[in-house]
Amino acid sequence: MHVLITGAAGFIGQLLAKELLNDASYKVILTDLVDPPIPTGVKYPGNAKAVTADLVEGGLEALVDSTLDAVYAFHGVMSSGSEANFELGMRVNVDATRALLETLRKKCPGVRVIYSSSQAVYGQPLPKLVTDDVIPTPESSYGAEKFICEALINDYTRRGFITGFTLRFPTISVRPGKPTAAASSFLSGMIREPLNGQEALIPLEDRSFKSWLCSPRTLLHNLIVTLSLPADSLPLHIRQINIPGICVTIQEMMDALEKVGGKDKLALLKEQEDPVVKKIVHSWPTRFDNSQAIRLGFKRDESFEQAVRDFKDSLDNNDT
């Protein structure tokens, strides 16, 4: 199977690439604005090709041909970044996606496209439990840009141009690496940095604040499930799926950090409210009805503590 991953230099692109390149049946093209690395330690690195490309400036011609079986669209400017720079967010999140879809329509019609969206498409007021019937009303440029692209995925699928699936991701925690321009970045940083012996800032002072979270391990499972979903598992014009998550408060995250890393790690946390971040994250929903996703074969995490243990184990393994 030939798979293209856009935004492949990012965490999710690298996570998926590593999984696919441990299976001989996949050939993977990794592309990003910066040179996307081929993950180290995989069984079949020769099955990967890395291409630096700007999707808006004609870079797609070298990436797309009729042999493609699937595309994972992970490129994008995150929430705080989109809010700070409207033009950049529209260019990367909307224009690049439209250019990708147009190229796919012309060069490999019907190809499977798995588009990464976000719970940021929702805005207040919201019911306590968000079902698939709740209409998105985004309160951020990032959410609006994702919602625009969801509509494109729906229509291109309805017209038979692609076979699209839109995955509305929960916040992914615990992400390795450095902080991102996402408003939710602290939801990984408050675990990641202390476990690395570094200070972390929590931009909220309300420890009862709830987030809808998913671990990298569970996200990866759900990304792979989407690769084999029957095309007719959703209506042709309604292709979005709310990916399962779990509801966790900041206090519960701190408790998990203490249990896994030790009480001393809590001393590395600093709570200082940021009104810009607060406004963005408070517009997001905190509980979803994921019955459709579960029926389709997706799964959810058992606990946030396990996500913290997964991350600590990855650090311990890197030390050995």
Automatic annotation (TrEMBL):
InterPro entries: DenD (IPR050005), Epimerase_deHydtase (IPR001509), NAD(P)-bd_dom_sf (IPR036291). Pfam families: Epimerase. The keyword RNA-binding does not apply. Residues 3-201 form the NAD-dependent epimerase/dehydratase domain. Signal peptide: none annotated. Keywords: Carbohydrate metabolism, NADP. It comes from the Eukaryota. One of its GO terms (molecular function) is oxidoreductase activity. PANTHER family: ADP-L-GLYCERO-D-MANNO-HEPTOSE-6-EPIMERASE, NUCLEOSIDE-DIPHOSPHATE-SUGAR EPIMERASE. This is Nucleoside-diphosphate-sugar epimerase. It comes from Talaromyces proteolyticus. The lineage of its organism: Eukaryota, Fungi, Dikarya, Ascomycota, Pezizomycotina.
